[in-house]
Amino acid sequence: MDVLAGQASVALENVRLVAELRAGRQQMQHIAHEVVTGLEQERVRISRVLHDEAGQMLTVLKISLELAAEDLSPELTDIRQRVLGASVMAARPWNGSGGWPRTCDRRRWTLSV
Length: 113
Prior knowledge:
Distance between the termini: 94 Å
Mean pLDDT: 82
Strand content: 5-15%
Radius of gyration: 32 Å
Number of helices: 2
Low-confidence stretches: 95-113
Number of domains: 1
Order of helices and strands: HHEE
Structural class: mainly alpha
C-alpha cells in the first residue's frame, strides 16, 4: 500500500509540475508577444519622428536654396541653376530603393539627368 501511495504522490507531483510548466510557458509567450508589440510600436514612433524632422529640415533647405538663387545676380545663371537643382533634390530626396532619384556630381553639384 505504501508503494502505491508513493507512486500516486509522485504522479500527482508530476501533474502539478507539468501544469506549472505549461503556465510558465504561456506566461513567457504572453510576455514575448508584449515585448514584440512594444518594440514594433516604438519603431513606428521613432520612424514617424525621424520622418517628420527630416521633412522639416528638407523643407527649410529647399526654401533657403530657392531664396539664395533669387538673390544671385543675373550673370550667375550657371550657379543659379545648380542651386535650384539642389532645391529640387531637397524637395524629393528618396526613391523607393533608399537612394537619390538623380545622381549628384560632387565636384560640380549639378543634377545628372
